[in-house]
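Notes from hallway chat w/ T.B., transcribed later so I don't forget. T.B. wanted the structure written out for a chain they're using in a teaching module, and asked if we could keep both sequence and structure tokens in one place. Agreed to drop them here.
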Amino acid sequence: MVGHVDHGKTTLTQALSGVWTDTHSEERKRGISIKLGYADTAFYKTADGRFYAKGKHPDGKDDDEGELLRVVSFVDAPGHETLMAVMISGASIMDGAMLLIAATEKCPQSQTREHLAALQIAGIENIVVVQNKIDIVTRERAVESHGEIKGFLEGTIAEGAPIIPVSAHHDVNLDILIQAIEDSIPTPDRSLDEGGLMYVARSFDTNRPGSRPDKLQGGIIGGSIVAGSFSVGDSILIAPGRRVQGGGKTDWEPIRTTIESVRGGGLALESVHAGGLCGIATPMDPVSTKADELSGQVMAREGELPPVWEKLDLDLELLENMVSGGEGEPEKVRPLQPNEMLMVNSATATSVGTVSSIKGSKATLQLRLPICAKPGSRITLSRRVGSRWRLIGHGSIGG
């Protein structure tokens, strides 16, 4: 769920799932999403062809398990321009995307452009465009907005994507939106996946202040399993892990722990497979998982962990122009410069890299914080322009 700040992503997530994902105290104060928000729901279809979300049967009845289509997890990504790194992290764990655009504002806004560019870089091709807030504009403005959106999508990865007018606040057209999601965002075939790989997007300490030592619960990690499966009792590694001192230098070593319990879709499970979001309970010291301390790490079993990179050799593909919704000529993306600092996003991980060498479409970056990723993984690159980081392109990890 991506788009410009204040276009209604969190409200739509709540309308489809019943979960308000802005739970962080600063988010509540500022009224915007700062961290990635998560919510699970289920989609159903009645015998006479009507679509509905969990808890919203069109006849007011209880959900009918015989009408269940599938369970869906939403990632509500921030829209504010200074939070692009978090949004790109969200894109990395999506099988598809809903791009929200409010009918109340001219399209495109700057973050709308940037989020669509991020989806293109992340390779997210299954997209449904949601024209929100149709309840507070005139019919003429709704039609005009639809034309703006259609023109904006021409020539992009979302050209031809369905554009569904909705009112998230009043639950208008949610059945049509669910049908579009079912038609446009299929469940990937993961039957051939081997091993297990999870991108950690959040981590928590669920203990209340003052809890007695014998009542303390271990640390919780949450995120998306992108390959294979994990089961209760599995021994796992989390990398890059933690800093360790030795021989006069700082090194990194993976965290070794076990899976004590698994939750997905609000249910306690014995095992969890690729697709959707889940929470993993571990015996780790909760201090190591508090306040998203492990966000950006990768979880796998022993022997299945991707390499940890402190230096990246990249095959580059820079954008021609800076992504912007402003008027006038777009700003060209200048080539990378030696010793330039760039923000690097790999799956849910964010680091800063210094360009140590550049030759044509090849570059080497020295990372301030290491990342764990498979060779060939796609990363995004952002450059500091004024007070914010601006998306300038992507690269794939050589190796």
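Follow-up for T.B.: The chain has three domains: 2-184, 196-301, 308-397. Might be a good example for the class.
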